[in-house]
Amino acid sequence: VQLQASGGGLVQAGGSLRLSCTVSGRIFSTGLLAWFRQGPGKEREFVAAISPSGTDTYYSDSVKGRFAISRDNAKNTVDLQMNSLKPEDTAVYLCAQAAYGSIYYSRGSYPYWGQGTQVTVSS
Predict the structure, then answer these.
(1) What's the pLDDT at 27?
(2) Of 27 and 46, which is predicted with more confidence?
(3) Are 28 and 54 in contact (CB under 8 A)?
(4) Most exposed: 33, 53, 55, 91, by fewest CB within 10 Å?
(5) What does each C-alpha distance from 123 to 47, 70, 89, 115 come to in angstroms?
(6) How much is the pLDDT for 33?
(7) How confident is the model at residue 30 (pLDDT cuts 50, 70, 90)?
(8) What is the DSSP string of 50-119?
(9) For 103, which DSSP code?
(10) Are residues 66 and 14 in contact, defined by beta-carbon separation less than 8 angstroms?
(11) What CA–CA distance (Å, rounded) separates 114 from 85?
C-alpha cells in the first residue's frame, strides 16, 4: 500500500486549504483512512479519520467544526478540507491507512503512511 499526499502550502490565518491523498493498494475500499499532523518539535497527533463507507467521521477537538474529511472510493482518494486556519495548524500533514475497526485516533494503529505535505499558516 502506498499513499501520496498533496495540496499543502502557505496560507494566511483565516484562509482555507484542501489536502488530497491518493492511495494505491487492494485494501483501500475496506480500510480506515486518517490524517495526522506533526508540528515543529511536537509529537504526531490525530486530526481526522473516516470509515470505509464514508458514513462515519471522527475529528480531534482542535479541528472539529473547521476541518472536513471525505473519501472517494472510486478514485482511491481521501481529502481534508481545512477552513478557518490558524497559525497553530502549521504542521506536516500525513495521510494513513489502517484496517477497519482499529483505534482510529492512535497512530500505532496505522501501518501505512504517506510522506506528508507541509501546511504553513501565517498570522
Answers:
(1) 63
(2) 46
(3) no
(4) 55
(5) 21, 27, 11, 26
(6) 95
(7) confident
(8) E-TTS--EEE-TTTTTTEEEEEETTTTEEEEEE-S--GGG-EEEEEEEEETTS-TT-GGG--EE---EEE
(9) -
(10) no
(11) 22
